[in-house]
Amino acid sequence: MILMLQQIELEQYPTGPHIASRLLYTAENSFGDVENKVVADFGCGCGTLGLAAALLGADHVIGLDIDTESLEIASSNADDLDLDMDFVHCDIKNLKWQDRIVDTVVMNPPFGTRRKGADMDFLFVALKVASNAVYSLHKTTTRDHVKRTALRDYNAVSAEVLCELRFDVPQLYKFHKKKEVDVAVDLWRFVPKKDGEKHL
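Structure tokens predicted for Methyltransferase-like protein 5 (200 residues):
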């Protein structure tokens, strides 16, 4: 099931299966960050990334989103696949989790075209709650800014672009003039600073 009424202020664009599979396949097969891990899907929408993590053997998956309709659809999708997942209604930037309670965060955050810095708000919180890694998609045009901010301001130990992908943005809103637009995005892997670890 997909989300029928996207909300532009939330920059809701569906994560396509090719991007979701690439992100999760890379996270698991290159780094071992999914199987037997606790995974959070920030801004989960209809649950694509979280569902993929569960199918790849995550120990537990938590989907978080501000949109209740999205969470209902994500929950229904999990039920359809007979997957046991938890869903939390919240605004990511106001998430009150203490400590590093998940191993891995996966996310396709808002790109920040409607509300500047929205993607970085997600990254800031993700690096606070993940103990192993954060996998995130960001527009390629923001690469230097994302890396600099993650390392300098958000205390990431590393920030690595794993690959550049084409994100197909379908014509969802009235202001979209083309049927589909390909946006260049980077698939990032960030490693959070461990508690007590010195950052060089």
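The CA atoms of residues 131 and 194 lie 7 Å apart.
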